[in-house]
């Protein structure tokens, strides 16, 4: 298992690749491959055949996985893409924070 700097539900900005500059929410994180699926980013067309009666066939738009190193977490306070750090609190729990504005990132 690889350790990832982002997780499902985080709002991220794409910093590299064909969709550079787009923002979206992480739908799925795949730590084994080091990839994430971001809503509205890396959309590909897939031809789908109807497998059961009533299922629609045709061309569907599907988000494809991109490497986690190509995305950066967007801070909710300053609104910018920033690196994140981890602080260990007095009670032993961990908290992520924005390295630009030092704001606490709610998980």
UniProtKB/TrEMBL annotation:
Organism annotation: Hominilimicola fabiformis
Protein name: Large ribosomal subunit protein uL24
Entry keyword annotation includes Coiled coil: no
Function: One of the proteins that surrounds the polypeptide exit tunnel on the outside of the subunit. One of two assembly initiator proteins, it binds directly to the 5'-end of the 23S rRNA, where it nucleates assembly of the 50S subunit.
GO molecular function, one term: rRNA binding
Subunit relationships: Part of the 50S ribosomal subunit.
InterPro entries noted in UniProt: KOW, Rib_uL2_dom2, Ribosomal_uL24, Ribosomal_uL24_C, Ribosomal_uL24_CS, Ribosomal_uL24_KOW, Translation_prot_SH3-like_sf
UniProt superkingdom: Bacteria
GO biological process: translation
Alphabetical list of SUPFAM superfamilies matching this protein: Translation proteins SH3-like domain
GO cellular component: ribonucleoprotein complex; ribosome
């Amino acid at each position: 298992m690889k350790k990832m700097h982002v997780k499902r539900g985080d709002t991220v900005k794409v910093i590299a690749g064909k969709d550079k500059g787009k923002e979206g929410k992480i739908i799925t994180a795949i730590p084994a491959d080091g990839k994430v699926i971001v809503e509205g980013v890396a959309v590909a067309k897939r031809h789908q055949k109807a497998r059961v009666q009533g299922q629609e066939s045709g061309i569907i738009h599907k988000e494809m996985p991109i490497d986690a190193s190509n995305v950066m977490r967007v801070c909710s306070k300053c609104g910018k893409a920033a690196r994140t750090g981890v602080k260990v609190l007095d009670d032993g729990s961990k908290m992520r924070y924005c390295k630009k504005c030092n704001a606490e990132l709610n998980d």
